[in-house]
Amino acid sequence: MITTLTATNDPGEWRLGAAPHEGAAPLATLTLRSAIGLRQPRVWYHVGCTVHAARELNLFHRQRTLLLGHDHTGASELAEIDWVRAEVPLATQATALHALVRAALAHIATRRGDYADRLIVELPGLRDSAGQSPFWAGLGRHFYAGDPRDAAALHGPGWRTLVAALLPRQPIYASFLPEAAQAAIGQVHPQALVLREVLEDFGLRYSNHVNVEDAGPLLDARIDDLPGAGR
Amino acid sequence: MNPERFLFRAAGPGDLDAFERIANASEIGITTLPADRAVLATKLARSAQAFASVDDSSGEEIYLFVLEDLEAPGGPRVVGTSGIAASAGFADRFYSYRNEMVVHHSAELDASNRIHTLHLCHDLTGYTLLTSFFIEPAYADTLAPQLLSRARLLFIKEFEDRFSDRIAAESPGLADDTGRCPFWDAVGRRFFDMDYPQVERITGGRSKAFIAELMPHSPIYVPLLGEAAQWAIGQLHPVGELPFSILIDEGFDTETYVDIFDGGPTVEARVAMLKSVQRSRTADAVADVVADSAPATGPWHVVAGTRRAGFTAVLRRAAAGASTVALDSATASRLPGTVRMAELGAGAA
Known about the structure:
The complex is a heterodimer of chains A (231) and B (349). Chain A has 231 residues and is an alpha+beta fold. Chain A has helices at 90-110, 134-138, 148-155, 159-164, 179-184, 193-202, and strands at residues 2-7, 13-19, 28-33, 44-54, 59-69, 76-83, 118-122, 172-173, 205-210, 217-222.
């Protein structure tokens, strides 16, 4: 694999690509951002835990809670990760993604001071074959009646920030959601499992945050702990 | 039935059999009157002490009343009960859900949503609480339930330093014949995995606060509840309709609070704003030999005594605004001296 790096028009933002050889179309691409959420806030749900216990009643209930917040504001991000899946063996997808992430980390190392303490990656969550998210159907839909895909088409990825104004501000007990919505929390779309494995190889881990639309997980790590990226 | 045959009075230890009969007869159970003879006996003893006590009120007092039909076939008989707890959640907390609306707005998405939320709160802690209302169904269409419910308000007005200036009353929420309750199923069950009657049994005599502490303390977003549970919020069990309608007529507010377990409406008011309290006035009871023979005219009034021990009230016709009320000699012996009276008014018809 060979990798390419180009600066975008936004300061602190780079596009990276990984291709099998010189002149070939890239198999995988991403956008590297030095610090997110500082101009337009970014929102996620923090997945927390509350225990309701009463020894006299022999009762012990662990409850998951969702709390809207901007916890990863200021972090660096690997965003818009896309790769060719059609007629590309899974092993090749993994190799391309691996090269791409390694190149991003190497670039961070050359300008370490431009980047934050932590690096995050949002992974796509569960969807049905029609592209509908069971998590959105169980939660977001009650607070915004519009179709998320229309809103995304109109406002770009920043629509999630806009919709946050309509979403509940107080903790939500996951047990109030339908089974399918609960099951989707923190689950990666099957097609993106390969990406999750690659990122976990580098040491990124689920941070107990999920995106507000499909509850796909957020992986994060301290940049200084990542191979090839630290000081 | 002639309303003059009803006698409202302080309950005493001798009413234990009647309370046990009523606790067993009540269709869905009266939370404050469990069908347990020992518990009822304790409550009656506490009530008797509260009526007789010369000490200042501590807030712990409960006052239980009965309604007697003096002309029942076979002799005078208790046909209803009601009660007052001086201070809701005394020495603990009284939990309710408070209805709140939040408006979520996004100009960019051109969307504005009014979201109904339920907030766990202690707002009603320390309020005086009306409790234990039961009237035999055969008397539902008479003025008996009016006397049974409203005479409590005259008692509270007469002894206002023993009560809060704010008052509340719980009503049973929607449930089916087997005790299944849609609100509990959607809310409490997620934290207990049991039917509500089962929770009540397990927690025994413990205060509801004990269970409430195991419930979520963050607001509940009503749109996330199922349709049946949403519909049940603030809905009354049919058996609660009669006492509820009397409280509404008195001017209680129904919009703000619901019960945290079954979602039934918990009504509340300022005591001073209630119809019977506003209309109430003191008058001199006059034993009038003529009253024994000539029927009085004028609207029906609740006529109550002004002594705490052995508190008594009856329904009599009296001229609006009169400063004396003529009573037959038997009634006058029950209500000696000054009485406190309030016109029933159109809402009680």
